[in-house]
UniProtKB/TrEMBL annotation:
Domain of life: Eukaryota
Family: Belongs to the peptidase M20A family.
Protein name from the UniProt record: Carboxypeptidase S
Residues where Zn(2+) 1 binds: 181, 216, 515
Listed GO biological process terms: proteolysis involved in protein catabolic process
Transmembrane stretches, start-end: 12-29
UniProt lineage: Eukaryota, Fungi, Dikarya, Ascomycota, Saccharomycotina
Gene Ontology MF, one: metal ion binding
Binding site for Zn(2+) 2: 146, 181, 244
Keywords: Carboxypeptidase, Hydrolase, Membrane, Metal-binding, Protease, Transmembrane, Transmembrane helix, Zinc
GO CC term (a single one): fungal-type vacuole lumen
Amino acid sequence: MVSVADKFNRYAAALGVGLVLAIVLFLTTSHKPVLDPKHPLCEQRPYIEPEYGHLANSSQFVSEEYKKKSVELFAGAIRIPTMSYDDLAMDPTKDERFNVFKDMHNYLFKSFPLASKHVETVNTYGLLYTIEGTNPSLKPVLLMAHQDVVPVNNDTIDQWTYPPFDGHFDGEFLWGRGTSDTKNSLVAQLEAIESLLSQGWVPKRTVILSFGFDEEITGFRGAYPISRLLHERYGTHGIEVIVDEGIGIVPFGGSIFASPAVTEKGRVDFKILLNTPGGHSSMPPDHTGIGIISELAFELEANPLSPVIQKGSVVEKFFDCMGEHAADLKDSERKKFLRSSTHDKLLPILESDPATRFIVKTSQAIDIVQGGVKINALPENVELQVDHRIAVHQNLDDLRSRMNEFVKKVATKHGLGLEFDGKTILKKTPLGSFNVSTFGGMNTAPISPYKGEVWDLLAGTTRHVIDDVIDHPYGPVFMAPSLMTANTDTAHFWDVSENIFRYLPVFMSDTNNIHTVDESLNIRSHISCVVWYYEFLVNACN
Ligand SMILES: [Zn+2]
């Protein structure tokens, strides 16, 4: 017999167990909210409302009337075919293909007469504008762009909807080579400064504009001598901030992200020569030089570099910003982007897209192979060249030792010698020898700070311009520091400023076909640049 009291006790016990179970289940199935507003991973900085004083408001640039004027100024620069060819002479006075830059100068001097009172040329075609500030204790601000464009391939001219150097405007887009890269920013910077000067503006902080003329072929003729001149004038890190071409405003997950690149990937190329004994091909060894170097190529590609997101890196920060501020992400998706160094959910997503995979890993491209001269003769000299763009978690030495290991393995297997950057790794043998040399070596650029005064200036200006001045179909903009997977002229300026941002205030959805057929830009993203440079200069120098 079970008493009523016993029954009650059992019910109570069952209820108690049930309650505990329910609480445990509740605690394990309900989770902390994915986002914690009190501890943001990607803090957004306040808007900056420019203090114009006697100056006109930046809304002067968003009228239909100004747009017409701006299109003409921009199109005029597109009509001058300032193409950079790989085989141009190092001395610009020794190659008449540079003469077109004279036309560019004449055009810019005529179109922006007030700015032109402040210009000097550097190494014949580099343009350096200096508007002296009244307070010499303030470090100057430097805006950069390049005058040159990549060549238009003659075979593709008839594929262009509008000829590449006509500067055709269709009412929305300006078409032509250089519209996106980067006569847009060059002309916009001059429009902003011309407007300021026309209003009698005298900056407190010196303003400098620097326009190289061979960015597309490494910048050693244009940006490099300008960088040395500025270093001489203002000293190491004597420039407060540099803004050059770079990443723009990226749409993602229902939000938009202004993504100044705070660093750019490094680069290294390897030239691998293999010398083996010649002879008649009727009596060949099992492996000719071509076979052996192919084995090396196969091994390199069979072992690609791994993707990595390092804790605390700008890469992690970039994806934290996306995860935290993308409006339309489901929580399950959001989690993949947040704190991505602590789990492996994001890497496969990035790896699957050619546009994102090289943000997180070093690239490897075998671009040149040469060898063999005659069908009945063994190849004596064979060559392989490999290009790497180095990710932020690696450096030159990592890549050198990796290449050394791969070549050593193949050399050992075939009984060959190996010399690496002049150092003997394996002694030369009668069977032959590898000779590896490194060139174009450059580590990842120093990281510009993405918090503090200068970042706040960039962020506050961007938020004001994009959210309050420019008309566009998107919601509010968020700042997300990023990295460039390619190189810019700023590679020559590491000792000139600690704050280098590769950034264009353009909507990435407005730019089409950089470096290829039908390059074009929505004029909205030209106006957004004019407004941004104008407000940035007012905020930084007024
Ligand atoms: Zn460019």
